[in-house]
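Readers outside the structure-tokenisation community will struggle with the description of the input data as it stands. For illustration, here is how one protein appears when written out as sequence plus structure tokens:
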Amino acid sequence: MFWSDWGVNARIETARMDGTNRVVLVDSLVQCPTGLAIDYPAIRLYWTDPNAYTVASVDLNARDRQIVKRFPNSKYN
């Protein structure tokens, strides 16, 4: 399973369904990770961060983090 926490210590984590093997995938340069999506063929996790105006991804081994898209920070752009 995968989940995200928001706030001061925002992060994205993964674990087995019984809660074992908990691993932090992302814990820096993230503010409000939402909309998690897994691309199993590519072995990547994607998320949006509306506070940072980004769509980002990381591989399921917590490596190769990428900004997929950065949006203008104005609602009117």
